[in-house]
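Pinned message: reference record for Tetratricopeptide repeat protein
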Amino acid sequence: MARVMSPRCRVALLATMFALPSIAAADPADDALKRSNHFKSIAVQRLSDLQGQVLRERFPPDQRVRVFLDVHMADFLLEHAEVRLNGNRIAEHDYSDAEARALRDQPETTHAIARDTAAPGVNTLEVRYRGRTGADGDPVSGSYRLNFDKTDRGKLLTVPVLPGHTVRDARDPTAGGVAWQSDPDDARLGMVRLLQATDRPLAALLFLLEISASVTTAESLPAGFHTLLASGYIDLGMRDQAYRALADAAEAEEPTVAVTGAAIDLAALEYRHRHVEAALAILENHRDRLTPVHRNDWEELRGRCLLALGDNDRAVGALQAVDWSLDEAPHVHFNLAVALIRRGDDEAGRKLLDRLGRADDGKLRDKANLALGYEYLRAGDGERARRTFARLPWRGPHTSRALAGFGWSELAPLAGDGEPPRETGGIRFGPFVFGASEVKPEEAAARAMSAWNALLERHPLEPAVQEARVARAYTLARTGDHQGAVADYEAAVDWLTDQRRRLDRLVQDLQRGEYAAALARDEYGELPPTAWLRHTVAESRFRQLQRNYQELRFLQGALAQADPYGTRVMQQALSQIADRNLRAAQMLIVERAKRQDQVIDNYILAAHRGRVRLLEEAREARARPGVNTP
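Predicted structure (tokens):
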């Protein structure tokens, strides 16, 4: 049985079992996330209280009848159901594909389809449903007509959905040999699982709070309640509340496998919000509670945390312990390849990247080929780099970087020439040094120029495009066209300066909130279609801020509808914190744009240096004896 914890016990359990760290709001994004959790918790509880009051007035507990459906056939997709009580239709529902599949595939899910009142005595419940067996199966239907005794207490009925099953005038607790009334706790938590499985976290949390409000003591809560509550908070990004719910789950001695699964999910939330040390602390505190069910998830997330913290040796060990094949989880093997290379096992890491670069997963395949190509460039192996970059498609999120790498691969020294990559007065673009190819330099330079020119047709705020603008002049210098290279360097400075102004205007527009409405709608058409922007808006923190905005606005509207005047102050607070989330999301783009501004400055500096170097070489050449000066 669950016990009511004292505040001191709760704090001790949080500190020892879940290692709850105190995270300061170090930037606007963290501050907005932290405030959102607080306001969402208050608003959800207030909305739950208001809805509970309405439910008690419309459906008094002693008269209430609730009907849940439970799909009992693995190959059946429910499409429609209708419920009648004493001849009156009280509910009908058309099931979405997501709902039907969750009811079919997710364990212990139910659907709370109807709620009504009934007088004491014998009442008649009729349930009719239809659906399909298999993806393209024929329509099948079924129905129940159940007579049940209603006392002066609420009644909860769980009806099994069995295709083709028809029961007439049965009495509880059985119907045609099939149990149709089950533990009400199981049915209610089953509805929570359905809501969570179909991506309705707010509705799931409100349903959980309704369950909590229906009991008088913590011991009366259904088994598994706290773990589901923790999962609900995690789904909404509500970190602090999830810690408390998990502590309650441990105190209530809920199943270890469920608590550990929720704890790993909480660690994943911390990792996504860049609280990597907190995530690792949670995982380490659950090392002794692991079961085989969660071993792979635990090791995989632990490996990512260690990789993010730069502990490459331990990251390799954790990722190698994951018992998932390359086909099952290519992302794990990609992270392992990165960890191996960072640890110094270059050859092993490259072999793994090469396998990933030939796998079926297109998105990760391109990412692996891009990483492998640049690994070969670091080793000065232009031939292998060139072949690897050639695997990437002409269109896609990694194409610009691949074109840049392909161009440099033409200028990199050949592998096996007996000499390491050497400095030739070239510009260092990235972590490798470009030396001279001794085989057909004009042809290699022409192919490199072809890659640079193709890049220049892409969006000018893409860093690879800016790199190509300077690389063109560098390539001209390598072929001996010093005069053309000087002119191209000068043109590159002017062009890059224009792009810096363009990026500065974008930053100013974002700071003024120009794109707020578009960001709220998850639309980015007016923003530059660059890889750095795509990466920013796909980041977990950005998505959570955007989601917070939408959820806080939803709560504001729900409170306005439930109690327009009594919740006015709370509505204003929700509006303000929602706008703060959207503002913080904009600032994440601003932060990334400013970093790109620095990249442009570096390319401008490189172009200046390239021009000055060529002019100095020309001046030194003219000053040598026997050299005619014009």
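Pinned by admin. Summary line: The chain has a mean pLDDT of 86.
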